[in-house]
Design brief:
alpha/beta; Rossmann fold; 2 domains; four-stranded parallel β-sheet; 52% helix; 11% strand; iron-sulfur cluster binding; metal-binding
């Protein structure tokens, strides 16, 4: 862990303790600290997951030493500078830098699971393979149709089969159902939290810790505890934050919004929610073919809802918002295209819109604060008129 990473990680702890001293966050802070101190175990298979996109039920059901790399910390080493052009996906670059800095490609029981959905990820994949990492990649089409495709089903089957083959562990359908139930419980606990008045900064942080834990029952219990401590949501929060993913410890934009008194809004930049498996668990047909068919349908819907991998603009949601803040990380070209579409919808419907194009450094923090302060005043004026 470099000095910049350590500073970012500690800044999250500081914000949580300073801004939310009365919230019972000790469990989640412990999860956060243990996540950064977690190491691979050479005696058992280890899985490192780069980026979102592969259903975590498959990762969890293997019951191995698992570590997600989110790409939310500012880190760039000489290898990164050599491989990637200046204009490239900062999330992929960050995750790549952490992987090559902290993990040994010669470790026999280490598998890297990597969704590939842009040019930067393909460059990273090529280098990792050449460097000797055992990489399981999954090409992902970000422009998905409304109906599930045979290509998606084949890809999901291939991922699951290859995962089991790589770690030499067969997982029974019963085990998948057990994890579906645990993940479903986590989903409903998180929804309950997000429907309370718990500040969005906190709910976004807690949502990311979901991918840091193996004991989902404990996590769900702690989430419900926070939800019970928070009062019910008193009004519909229609301010929309969308665009490039915002992954902790990158807290710049969320911290600014919190400091401006914007505590509750819709955050479409957080990590994906856990999948909802109600349809699967309520089904009476538990034949293995039916099980996988329902899993594919659920996962296809989840990918379509995931802002990290789907650029389907929900015009109705935008039209019903009080304003849109579009977060654009420099180097994420697909999001730049989406920002233009959303801005047009906002202009056509008289909805305040602001584009915040930024990076992981703090150089533009004050400039962003000034722009968002003015934007907040504009929203208040629009609401009053």
């Amino acid at each position: 862990m470099n000095d910049m990473q350590h500073k970012q990680i500690e800044s999250v702890n500081s914000i949580l303790n300073k801004e939310f001293p009365h919230m019972p966050m000790s469990y989640f802070l412990t999860v956060w600290q243990e996540y950064w101190n977690k190491k691979t175990n050479p005696d058992i298979p280890n899985i490192v997951v780069m980026d979102m996109g592969i259903p975590d039920i498959y990762i969890r059901a293997l019951e191995l030493n698992t570590h997600y790399i989110f790409g939310g910390s500012y880190q760039e080493n000489s290898v990164t500078q050599e491989i990637f052009p200046q204009i490239s996906d900062p999330i992929v670059k960050s995750a790549f830098s952490l992987l090559v800095s902290e993990y040994n490609p010669q470790q026999k029981q280490l598998t890297v699971v990597m969704p590939v959905h842009n040019i930067t990820a393909r460059k990273a994949l090529s280098f990792l393979s050449e460097a000797g990492f055992n990489v399981l990649s999954a090409e992902q089409n970000i422009f998905l149709s409304k109906e599930i495709s045979d290509e998606f089903i084949d890809e999901q089957n291939e991922i699951w089969y290859t995962l089991q083959q790589t770690v030499q562990k067969a997982v029974a359908p019963k085990k998948l159902l057990q994890y579906a139930e645990a993940i479903n419980g986590a989903y409903h606990a998180l929804v309950k939290l997000e429907e309370s008045n718990c500040p969005t900064f906190l709910t976004s942080f807690i949502r990311q810790t979901y991918y840091m834990v193996s004991d989902l029952e404990k996590w769900s219990m702690e989430v419900r505890h926070i939800a019970e401590k928070s009062s019910p949501k008193t009004e519909n929060q229609s301010l929309l934050l969308t665009g490039s993913p915002i992954l902790f410890p990158n807290t710049k934009l969320l911290s600014i919004l919190q400091s401006l008194g914007l505590e509750k809004y819709q955050n479409h930049c957080a990590v994906p929610r856990p999948c909802i498996y109600d349809d699967l668990l309520n089904s009476k047909d538990m034949h293995i073919n039916s099980l996988y068919s329902k899993l594919h349908e659920i996962h296809y819907w989840a990918v379509n809802q995931d802002i990290s991998h789907s650029f389907i603009v929900n015009a109705d949601e935008i039209k019903h918002s009080s304003g849109v803040i579009y977060h654009l990380l420099k180097g994420q070209l697909s999001y730049a295209y989406e920002a233009e579409q959303i801005e047009k919808i906002c202009i056509d419907n008289g909805i305040p819109f602001v584009l915040i194009e930024t990076d992981y450094t703090d150089a533009d923090t004050e400039q962003i604060r000034i722009r968002l302060e003015a934007f907040t005043e504009l929203i208040m004026q629009s609401s009053a008129s």
